[in-house]
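Per reviewer request, we include the raw input and output of the structure prediction for the construct analysed in the revised manuscript.
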Amino acid sequence: MTPRIDLATCTEARLWRFVGSHLESRGIKTVLVGGAVVAVYTDGAYRSGDLDFVLEREADDRITSAMAEIGFQLRGRHFAHPECEHLFVEFVPGPVGIGQDLSIVPRIERVGHLELKILSPTDCVRDRLASAIHFRARECLEQAVLVAQAHDVDWERIEAWCRAEDPSGAQVFANLRRRAGKP
C-alpha cells in the first residue's frame, strides 16, 4: 500500500517513500540518487528540489501510467504534481554509478513489505564528490560534508575512490575531511 502524504508540504524523504512505494508496488524497481539522497540523510538540512530515480530496467514503459495513478504528469522530462509545487521527479538513465564505479550496491529501506533502494551514506558522499571532482561543483562538496557529518561513512573507501577517480581527487578528499572535522 502506498503511504499517504501531504504533497503541498512534503520533504524529499517523504516524497521518496510515497513515489518509491507506489512504483515498487507496481513492480517498477528504482534507486534514489542525487541531491535528494542528501536531503534524506540530513533530515532536510539540505533541500534538493527534485528526486532523481534510476530505473533498474532501462526503458520501463509503465512509468508514465504509474506516476499518473498518483497524480504526477510528465512535463518535459520531469514529473510534476499540482499539489507538490516545490518538488518534482525525474527518471535518469542508468546504470547506477558513481564516476567510473558501476558496482554500486544500494541501501535497502523497508516500507511495510516493500523494499526501497537508495544510495548508502558512503556512496552518497562519493556521488557528491564526483560532481565536485568532475564539474568543480563546490556546492556538491558542501553536500558531501553534510552527509559525512551526519552519518558514519567509510572514509578509507571514499579516499581510495577519490584518488582513483581523478588526479584532483586527493585534494577534494582532503577538503572533505577538513570541512567535516575528521582529522
